[in-house]
Specification:
Oligomer: single chain
Order of helices and strands: EHEHEHEHEEHEEEHEEEEH
Strand content: 25-35%
CATH architecture of the largest domain: 3-Layer(aba) Sandwich
Number of domains: 2
CATH class of the largest domain: Alpha Beta
Radius of gyration: 19 Å
Distance between the termini: 39 Å
CATH topology of the largest domain: Rossmann fold
Number of helices: 7
Length: 238
C-alpha cells in the first residue's frame, strides 16, 4: 500500500487531491509540521516504507544538498517507488535528474485542479547518457486520463504549433477537471481565459516531435532587455 510523505501543502488545490486518494488505497499519509531536509530524511528513515513524495524542483534541490546541511545518514534514503516533481522550474530536475529515483515531472494549474500532465518515462530512454535522460525527464509530457486534451497553440489563430521543439506557443487545456469560470463575477475575464474553448494557461512552451511538451517560460515572466526576449527558465537552467 502507498506511504505518502507530505512536502506539499494540503490546502494547495486540495493537496493535489492525494490525502483522500492515499486513504482510499488503504495507504498512509506521513505529515510534516515544518519543512527541512533533515525532517524529510528523518521521516523517510522512520517510515522505511515511504513509496511516494512530491514537491517543487526547489524542494528537490534542497533535498539534494542535505549532506551540506548537517549530520545525517551516510546513505540518503529516498522514496522507493515514485516521486512527483512540479514544473515550476525545470533546471532543478534537469540538474538532479538521476538523483530523483523514480521521479515523474508533472505540470498543471489550480485552474486544472492540480497536475494535468506527466512526463511518462519511455523504456528506450534508459539506454541514453545521463545528461540526455535528465533533459528528457525535465519535460512536461502528456495530459493525464481525466484531461480531454492539452495543446500548445498560437493564442491568436488558435492553431497548434508544429511539433518541431522550436516554435513557441501557449499551453492550453480542456477537459472535465478544468475550471468553468475565471471568477464568479467577471464575465470578461472568463471569456478571455477560455477563448476558443480552451483554458489559456499563460505559459509558453514548445512541442517536440514525440508529442511531449516542454515549458519555456511564463508569458509574464519573460525578461525583456534591449528588445530581446530572455527566458527566465533558461537562465535558471544555466
Amino acid at each position: 500500500m502507498p506511504v505518502y510523505l507530505w512536502t506539499v501543502p494540503m490546502f494547495h488545490c486540495n493537496g493535489w487531491n492525494l490525502p483522500w486518494g492515499v486513504a482510499m488505497q488503504g495507504g498512509t499519509n506521513v505529515c510534516l509540521r515544518h519543512f527541512t531536509a533533515r525532517v524529510i530524511f528523518d521521516r523517510i528513515a522512520r517510515h522505511g516504507g515511504v513509496t511516494h513524495m512530491g514537491g517543487a524542483p526547489t524542494r528537490a534541490q534542497h533535498d539534494r544538498q542535505r549532506p551540506a546541511r548537517g549530520p545525517g545518514p551516510a546513505s540518503r534514503p529516498g522514496p522507493r517507488d515514485d516521486g512527483r516533481v512540479a514544473a515550476a522550474a525545470a533546471g532543478a530536475v534537469r540538474d538532479g535528474g538521476d538523483g530523483l529515483r523514480g521521479a515523474h515531472h508533472i505540470y498543471g494549474l489550480t485552474e486544472t485542479y492540480g497536475p494535468a500532465t506527466v512526463c511518462a518515462w519511455m523504456p528506450e530512454w534508459d539506454a541514453l547518457p545521463a545528461h540526455d535522460r535528465a533533459r528528457l525527464k525535465a519535460r512536461q509530457g502528456f495530459h493525464h486520463i481525466a484531461m480531454q486534451g492539452v495543446d500548445v497553440k498560437d493564442p491568436v489563430t488558435m492553431e497548434s504549433v508544429p511539433r518541431d521543439g522550436n516554435t513557441v506557443g501557449e499551453v492550453m487545456f480542456r477537459g472535465n477537471t478544468v475550471m468553468r469560470a475565471a471568477t464568479t463575477k467577471d464575465l470578461n475575464a472568463t471569456k478571455e481565459s477560455m477563448a476558443g474553448g480552451w483554458l489559456h494557461s499563460g505559459d509558453l512552451a514548445v512541442r517536440h516531435e514525440d508529442g511531449y511538451i516542454q515549458l519555456k517560460d511564463r508569458a509574464k515572466d519573460i525578461i525583456i532587455s534591449g528588445g530581446e526576449n530572455i527566458s527566465s527558465i533558461e537562465v535558471e537552467s544555466v
